[in-house]
Amino acid sequence: MKITREQVIRVAELAHLELSEAELDVYSRQLDEILAYVEKLNQLDTSQVEPMAQVFSGDAAEENSSARADEARHSDVADAVLGIAPDPSRPYFRVPKVIEK
Amino acid sequence: MTASWNIPSIRAALQQKKLSARELTTEFFARIDRRNPELNAYLALSPEQAFAQADRVDSMIARGESLPPLAGVPVAIKDVISTRGIRTTCGSRILENYQPPYDATATSRLHAAGAITLGKTNCDEFAMGSSTENSAYGPTRNPVALDRVPGGSSGGSAAAVAAGLAVVALGTDTGGSIRQPGALCGIPAMMGTYGRVSRYGLIAFASSLDRIGPFASTVQDVASVLSVIAGRDAADSTCVPVPVPNYSADLDRPVRGLRIGIPREYFGEGMDPAVRQKVEAGIKLLESLGCVPVELQMPHTDYAIATYYIVATAEASSNLARYDGVRYGLRVPGSTLLDTYRKTRGRGFGPEVKRRIMLGTYALSSGYYDAYYLKAQKVRALIARDFVQAFQKVDAIVTPTSPCPAFRLGEKTDDPLQMYLADIYTVTGSLAGVPGISVPCGKTPQGLPVGLQIFGPHFGESRVLQLANAFEKAGGFEV
Q1: Residue B152: strand, helix, or coil
Q2: pLDDT digits (tens, 9 = 90+) for B425-474
Q3: CA distance, residue B43 to nearest chain A CA (Å)
């Protein structure tokens, strides 16, 4: 077995997901199957291979870089952004209390 | 009988004043009213914006102004691409009432080119799936066979164009989500090189893989749309500054003498025999046009699905951390802030999204990062190297798009791994960052469309389009 039910519970905590008992059962089984399939990557010797995080890296990234100049620009989106918030209290987003007295 | 429109025929009809943009827009909304209830291709319609844009085009015509390249063209936009003021759900309950305060760059470029946005198309939740069955708003049906899926994740975009409910559509491709539904619905569908089209305003799934690209009924229309949406954008630093050629102008260049690579790994077990037969006939058709087939080996192909489902889910687990019920979208109140996060995410996300967040979180977690995520990134480099080496020998690579034609609704929903394998021929190019198109390549004896996939080297979009166009003109639809 690649992953235990206890590990699945721990992963759900890390991911901030509330899962039902039934979901934990299903995901335990399915993640185990998927991880068993992924095991095939270990057939390959990658000790001499650099990891690829982006399509263009190193010189290619330099060549294809399109960073813009860091200049201040006017932005006036606060009202639009707060307008779609679940519980706005201008200019803030209101959330349940984080710090206890 | 509904007329079949394309970009040149719309342009001609508008310029000759045979109809107005408003009339054409009215016609498309009428078509959507008739067909969408059974197809569920659209999740939201935007008639106000559409008619306002149509009127702008009509007044340009009235004033005798020259028309922008997509003037009056009715478009559909996948629901993971931001449209200002138009509900954008990503097929998810967690964004059920979300109206973006801004447009994606691809959206605003379509508008600037005169296109008319009809509405937003259905997709697998956050683009995670290969059948559009993972949408929280019900599946889309394949217009070619209503008991079958349109493919995914951009199934709504593919179905809308295939059913004549839009002339072109935007989709997104992370592991095959443009090309596979294009194949299953029988229309051309393309992703450019990674970074060719800005991702600004594309709601992120896996940032190192996500690409926006067009669906259309002809390769020529695909080229026209790509020419409009491609190119540098200061709002996306991964959008490359390489100049954008006029893809339409290069379309009819001869294909005689082009070397087309046929990688043997794409023709192994697991392919539907009818798909194999059509794709082999498609390759013969390219040969009859003077293309030279070259047998290739791409030895890491078999590792692509495993690599993809680690890399993509790892990136997704990070990208989707933003849905916490604080700033936008659903909030399910809890007793504490943490409890609010957990409840909001637990109820707001559907089963496949939660599965992928779990897998990605695990692959990135302490003690497993090297074994899974780092390992997958290294194998990704080997897969990319296969492509670099192949393009030293050939001009393009030709493969099937999907191992099977459109499958029945519900056929693969119980087995995530089987569903993942639907992307077996498309994820390789996604990982390598190369451009790829799917073009219709005949139909199975049951009448289900088959797609031929053509990959080019980085920034080889012109070559890919040129081959696809020659294939289509030579009767690829009917091989």
Answers
A1: coil
A2: 999 999 999 999 999 999 999 999 999 999 999 999 999 999 999 999 99
A3: 19
**Upper half-sphere CA count for residue B240 (Cβ side, 13 Å):** 21
**Could you give the CA distance from residue B291 to residue B258 in angstroms, rounded to a whole number?**
5
pTM: 0.97
Q: B375-390 and B304-319 are packed helices; what angle lies between their axes, rounded to 10 degrees?
A: 120
Please state the φ and ψ torsions of residue B28, each to the nearest 5 degrees. Answer: -70, -40
Q: What distance in Å separates the CA atoms of residue B378 and residue A41, rounded to the nearest whole number?
A: 10
* Interchain contact, A96 vs B300, CB within 8 Å: no
Coil, helix or strand at residue B185:
helix
* A54 in contact with chain B, both atoms CB, cutoff 8 A: yes
- Non-local (6+) Cβ contacts of B464 within 8 A are B190, B396, B435, B436, B437, B454, B455, B456
What is the DSSP track for B288-355?
Answer: HTT-EEEEE--TTGGGHHHHHHHHHHHHHHHHGGG-SSSSSS-----SSHHHHHHHHHHHHS-HHHHH
Q: Is A41 an 8 Å CB contact of chain B?
A: yes
| Contact across the interface for B303 and A66, Cβ inside 8 Å | no
Count the Cβ atoms, other than its own, within 10 Å of residue B342. Answer: 22
User: Which of A15, A66, A87 has its CB closest to that of B358?
Assistant: A15
CB-based contact, A24 to chain B, within 8 Å: no
CA distance A38 to chain B (A): 5
Nearest CA in chain A to B84: A80
Helices B304-319 and A21-38, axial angle in degrees (round to 10):
140
State pLDDT tens for residues B69-105: 999 999 999 999 999 999 999 999 999 999 999 999 9
Q: How far apart are CA B356 and CA A82, in angstroms?
A: 30
Q: First vs last Cα of chain B: how many Å apart?
A: 26
Which residues of B does the annotation mark as catalytic? 78, 153, 177
Query: Distance (Å, rounded) from C-alpha B427 to C-alpha B447?
Result: 26
E strand or H helix at B42? strand B42-45
Chain A residues with CB under 8 Å of B365 CB are 11, 14
CA angle in degrees (0–180, nearest 5) for B354-B146-B452: 80
In this prediction, does ipTM exceed 0.90?
Answer: yes
B449: tokens are 């469309």
How far apart CA B89 and CA B80 sit, in angstroms, is: 7
How large is the C-alpha radius of gyration of chain A? 23
Tokens describing residue B49 = 């914006």
Q: Provide the greatest CA pair distance for chain B.
A: 69
